[in-house]
# Entry
Amino acid sequence: MITLRRVAFGLVLLAWLLVLVKVAAPQLSQAFQPDGDLAADMLLVNQLHDDGYLLTGHYSRFGFNHPGPSFLYVNALFEQIGAVAGMPRANAWFLSSLVFNFVFLWLIAWATARLFGRRLSLAALAAVLPLSILLGSTLSNFWMPYRLVLPFAAFFLTAVLVASRGMRFLPLSMALACLLIHGYVTMPVFTLPLLLLVTLFRLWQADWRLAGDGRWLLISLGIGVLFLLPLLVDFLVNPQPNLLRILRAQSHLAGADHPTLAESLTYAFSYWRSTLLFLVPAALVFLLRSRSLGSVNRRPLLYAAALAAFISVVFVLYHATVPKPLHPFMGSYYQGIPLAMTALLLYASLCSLPRPGASVLLAGVMLVWLSTLQVQLMAPREDIRELGDFLIANSDQRVVIDYPDDSEPFWITAGGLLLYLKDRGIDACIARPEMDFLYTPNGVCREQVDFRLERAERCGPGCLATSGGIALAPPSARRDG
# Structure
């Protein structure tokens, strides 16, 4: 028989998804031309369509690609799903991010309940709902730094599950670690030591006897090998393997200026600041009601606090060794730790209250609050469309584009323009072979330049077209000024 609690759980879960779609609707329907990072990721998926496979991930500003393609395969899948519904490609990527993050919110709710030995329930949903408020419009944004936050929170909670509940959760934790490593090159530093620590802890508790846990270790190793395959294949078949590019970039960065330990500590705390609105009240309620939980239910929080401290120390020490400056996007995944701790404390507080009505009340308030949020729309970049249409109308063969070295916005526009042309069947490339990590090997060339991007005010009398302050000129039409 379906109980009232199950009905309430189902209604809240459905309402949560519908509210997220309602909030994201402007992004899902907005007309815009991708540029910069977003265009670069779409060019990688173009390479997947062209070659039938993809072995690397999102580009790095240091001249390589992040280790693996898992996130991009998800986006490619949603391109096909969106196409069935007539959704433009870029908007389908927003849908991909929204569904992807909703799945991870559900996984975080499940892991939170399992840590306390309970099933997924309304209380777990209510405890995780505030996370979607804290993340806001980033839930549907497909920029890679945003995509890592919830997977990192889920990975952290599954690592706590391994430590507190057993090795059977190790394969899931390993899979999440591998997904994160595919997405960001520094993730081995923040995932593998934690996995090793919780695994050794469980083996120590079992007096170093594997007993029935050996199969979980083997399954986990198999998952690791599976995610490692793209890196190995790329190393074997690519004349310039991505792994060697990563190592070369690390060696070049060794002599750069580094932040002080105090600066790194401040940087780490900045990711906790946004969660204090929910974290502090939840901690206070938990402290007041902790006796009613019992020691068994307090133990998961102690494990989580210890492992959060471990990750935080690693985060601070690591970011004292990276080149300045410490950009907010570089450590955005770390926000997953305070988010996970917020969910745990909220859930523990709800479980400590004598009446279940608190979960219904919290869920209702959070859903209403969530429905009032507004997403940040993308810049429409009509200049890319207009310049692209000019090139399509005035080119009957391969289009080779270049741009000056003196201004960063040109690479942003060049990527968007290249994507616009390729998505319309135009054979185009950027005359920057050294930038193949950004524009993909299929999007760069060593050929005579046909068109050059310029600032409109610096484009001489031979200027061919202008839009939004950007101009297209013949290669020799630049006028310094």
Summary: The radius of gyration is 25 Å. The beta strands are 399-402, 428-430, 451-455, 465-467, 470-473. The chain has 18 helices and five strands.
